[in-house]
Amino acid sequence: EDQVTQSPEALRLQEGESSSLNCSYTVSGLRGLFWYRQDPGKGPEFLFTLYSAGEEKEKERLKATLTKKESFLHITAPKPEDSATYLCAVQAYGGSQGNLIFGKGTKLSVKP
Amino acid sequence: EPEVTQTPSHQVTQMGQEVILRCVPISNHLYFYWYRQILGQKVEFLVSFYNNEISEKSEIFDDQFSVERPDGSNFTLKIRSTKLEDSAMYFCASSEGTAKNIQYFGAGTRLSVL
Fold this sequence. Notes:
Chain A is mainly beta and 112 residues long. Chain A has strands spanning 3-7, 10-14, 19-26, 30-38, 45-50, 56-59, 62-66, 70-75, 84-92, 101-102, 106-111. The radius of gyration of chain B is 13 Å and the shape is globular.
């Protein structure tokens, strides 16, 4: 069964304190891995997509990396406005027409 | 920037009533999706739709659910007889294609079944 597990469930950082969020996945074949940001009461906002092991993407203070078993979202010198829930999702080969399988997310709080 | 629009933002209904949730996908997108998120749980896939028919549906998407593209811009999710456990955030998403295509999500409709 295709599965996505994110850790930690919650992370509290001081402004400027860098850290990483983990997304472990088990899929029959990975089409793509997606990172989204979700603010309270809002829909997921697209951040990155990664397709093959070794791939990296960067955007401002965020950097996403991918291996054959997991992905990391690195946050460098975070600011309070980076506080949100970060969702990881995978798209798998085999039968699906593109639906995303989500993890539960990591709730990030950045204190000034 | 193009975005997916959902209405209403909050829908309150009585158990057993029918509800219709509405979505306007991004205009040049061809694939449409509904997901739901029960409070404190994962975002879960419900159904995908392409070329005026369902492409795939999950176990959650039973006979109480239906989807429709009534015109060139709207995409709707209907729940025929709501249950308490249908209370959730419902998200519409759209993409240009399926494989390796980014899905863009709307802000969601919060459905509260009393």
